[in-house]
Amino acid sequence: MINIHLNKEMEDYIVERHLLYCLGEPRRKFYKYYSGLNATSKEHAIMKILKEHLVTIFIGSVDDIETIMKYERTEKPIISKLGKLSDKELAQFFRQQKNIFNYDSFSSSYKNKPTIFNDLLDNSRFRIIINGKKKRNLTLDHLDNLKHHFDLKTLLYNKLCDQNGITRLKIINDMNQLCNPIFKKYNSLLTGGVKVSITDFHVKLIKALDQILEAYKWGPYDYIEALEIITCPYCNRQYLTFFDKFRARRKPDLDHFYSKSDFPFLGISIFNLVPCCKVCNQSFKGSKKFIKTKKYERSPYRHEIILNSLNNLSSSNVIYPCIYPIARHSRLPDDLQIFKLKYDISGSLVIGLNFADIIRSTHDLLYNLGVFHIEDVYQIHNNYGRDLFDNISMYTDDYIADTVKLLQSNHMTVPSKKDLYKFLMGNQYFSHEFSDQVLSQLTRDVTRQFIPKYF
Ligand SMILES: [Zn+2]
Asked: Which H helix or E strand runs over 159?
């Protein structure tokens, strides 16, 4: 089990792309369902809370999601309300949510264009904005209407970002940069008395918008690519196969960390989707419901998104029906040693779990290691472990001192710990780089077991 490390730049990219997707179809579906609900119904009360935290549900970090889940759990009045729903009503309610937060739609379309300017791109809706009638020539009134509509959207999106502590959307800047000159140009043409057909103008605008929307396409392939993750975060022993060429596409599984059948509103929560190998997802985790079966579990996402909205959460304003206990966990410590080599009964060195360290630092990891049968599946790497041990036995103080000198003569500077480690052990030294190479956690843990002085 290793962390998926996200830097700020990757986070911004993923959050913006995914938000643009979610604010299209999923958000429209949400509001359609919400507005059709009886305002005194139990479903309405619950959906109202989801509405207030819709952005967090779409792009919140695992901690954010868990905070919402946690409040769900503690808010007794709503849970008791939900408890009054019959099984049939509850199933129907969950079906509606699944349809809104629809993972299949997200994953089946290879790349989704953001839909924020669909009303300008679509002819019939475009006509509504320019006052309905199909007039031949563009007037200053039409242009004002369109500009007003354009600015309103920009304003709304910026407001949304401010409210949720998100870096302002880059797409809005791109839109303004490309579209404002077009508005300006046509404004001066019209004031100068030049006749312009509506179609002419519309075609120009569509072209500009389309160019931008094309650049902001988003789907599961873009997501996995953006994460830059190379090995399965659950086992760190399989490389993830990502292939996207000549219309033939293969991607790793995207596991719903918190299952979408228990939490349908998490169906397209981006940081609830964990790219992983098929063995971990299908053979081991499968339909095992993390939350239902045990108290502890740990998502591999590790990042620093702090959504402002969550600072204001109190148990009275975030509630969702959750019947399972949720544990909030501390981060995986960087120096945690998960593996160690030990002698089995026959006297051979084998790979084992370093229970003392695991339990001391984090309980929830133990549960994950069990779900993915880590100790068992690692037995196939016992030979690798023994090779490591053999190498390490040769790394005496003199040998390491000579290696430092050798590297120094090549680099002209004293090699960093990382350089020295890579040279000797052939793997990643820092935990945030573990996802780049298989067996990186095992390699570092065994190294530290035997030569802690240097690493
Ligand atoms: Zn795996």
From this structure: helix 140-164
Show the CA angle centred on residue 305, arms to residues 174 and 436, nearest 5°: 90
Retrieve residue 164's tokens: 């949720």
Query: Mean pLDDT throughout 286-309?
Result: 52
Judged against a pLDDT cut of 80, whether residue 388 lies above it is answered with yes
pLDDT band of residue 261 (cuts 50, 70, 90) is confident
- pLDDT in the model for residue 239: 96
Does residue 295 surpass a pLDDT of 60?
Answer: no
Gap from CA of 350 to ligand 1 centroid (Å): 20
266 CA distance to ligand 1 centroid (A)?
Answer: 22
Average pLDDT, stretch 342-355? 95
pTM of the complete model: 0.85
Distance separating alpha carbons of residues 80 and 88, to the nearest angstrom: 16
Q: What would the DSSP string read from start to end of 406-426?
A: HHHHHHSSPPPHHHHHHHHH-
Task: Indicate left, alpha or beta for 273 from its phi (over 0: left) and psi (-120 to 50: alpha).
Answer: beta
Q: How far is the CA of 41 from the centre of ligand 1 (A)?
A: 43
At residue 253, the 3 state secondary structure works out as: strand
Q: Which residues pair with 353 in a beta bridge?
A: 339
Identity of the amino acid at 430? F
Reference 361, options 331, 340, 326, 339; nearest CA is 331
Is the model more confident about 303 or about 360? 360
pLDDT of residue 204: 92
Contact residues for 258 (Cβ-Cβ < 8 A; gap 6+): 65, 69, 266, 272, 290, 291
Instruction: State CA 199 to chain mean position distance.
Output: 41
With CA atoms as reference, report the closest residue to 454 among 413, 409, 422: 422
| 277 alpha carbon – ligand 1 mean position (Å) | 4
Query: What pLDDT digit, counting tens, does each position of 301-326 carry?
Result: 754 333 333 333 333 332 222 222 23
CB 114 within 8 A of CB 218: yes
CA of 385 to the centre of ligand 1 (A): 19
- Closest residue by Cα to residue 324 from 262, 378, 232: 262
- Tokens representing 325 are 């206990």
SS3 state of residue 340: strand
CA of 397 to the centre of ligand 1 (A): 36
Ramachandran quadrant class, 113 (left: phi over 0; alpha: psi -120 to 50; beta: rest): beta
Whose structure tokens read 């979408």?
260
Q: How many angstroms separate the first and last alpha carbons of the chain?
A: 20
Q: Which residues pair with 276 in a beta bridge?
A: 253
374 close to 340: Cβ distance less than 8 angstroms: no
